[in-house]
């Protein structure tokens, strides 16, 4: 039936295909032959069941998709790709594993964090090379952080306001001296 490296969903789909093809589940006796007049409802039910299992497998796969990916590039920068704005704590922890102290907040589009919540580096003193974005016009969904521009004791603050209906987001990246208070959400 299935191989050990197959996922649960793949094995379940194989089992359902066997049920549809033979009219019986694995390990059970085949169903007695039926008249052709009764096969149509059974076939319709089997197709519906197959569709439901396939849809379930797709939904399970989507739920198991990672929300982000973090990796180190050859130049020492940290590449961050975000696929779904749903796990800010996980992203913060993953960045910490790469040596980047960060505060990450994903907010509804109509909300923002009450400020001030940190001693921010003034905009004029922010190192422009801290964050590198893909070239304009490219459909890449990543940015790169150059940790050498984050001094000891500083925190990268990454705040994103997400509008899921319009598939839009507004991101702000700042640098703070010392710790950053938790985000107290207020209307934007």
From TrEMBL:
Tell me the superkingdom of the source: Bacteria
Q: What is this protein called?
A: Tat pathway signal sequence domain protein
Q: Where are the transmembrane segments?
A: 42-63
Which keywords appear in this protein's UniProt record, sorted alphabetically? Membrane, Transmembrane, Transmembrane helix
Q: Which organism is it from?
A: Dactylosporangium vinaceum
Q: What is the lineage of its organism?
A: Bacteria, Bacillati, Actinomycetota, Actinomycetes, Micromonosporales
Q: In its keyword annotation, does this UniProt entry include Membrane?
A: yes
């Amino acid at each position: 039936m299935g191989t050990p490296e197959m996922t649960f969903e793949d094995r379940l789909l194989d089992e359902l295909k066997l049920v549809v093809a033979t009219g019986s589940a694995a390990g059970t006796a085949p169903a007695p032959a039926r008249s052709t007049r009764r096969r149509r409802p059974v076939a319709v039910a089997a197709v519906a069941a197959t569709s439901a299992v396939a849809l379930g497998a797709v939904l399970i796969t989507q739920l198991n998709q990672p929300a982000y990916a973090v990796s180190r590039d050859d130049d020492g920068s940290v590449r961050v790709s975000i696929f779904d704005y749903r796990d800010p704590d996980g992203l913060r922890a993953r960045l910490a594993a790469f040596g980047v102290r960060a505060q990450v907040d994903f907010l509804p589009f109509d909300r923002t964090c009450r400020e001030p919540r940190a001693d921010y580096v003034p905009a004029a003193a922010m190192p422009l090379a801290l964050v590198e974005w893909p070239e304009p016009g490219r459909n890449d969904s990543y940015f790169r952080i150059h940790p050498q521009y984050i001094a000891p004791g500083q925190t990268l603050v990454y705040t994103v306001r997400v509008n899921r209906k319009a598939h839009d987001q507004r991101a702000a990246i700042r640098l703070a001296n010392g710790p950053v208070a938790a985000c107290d959400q207020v209307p934007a």
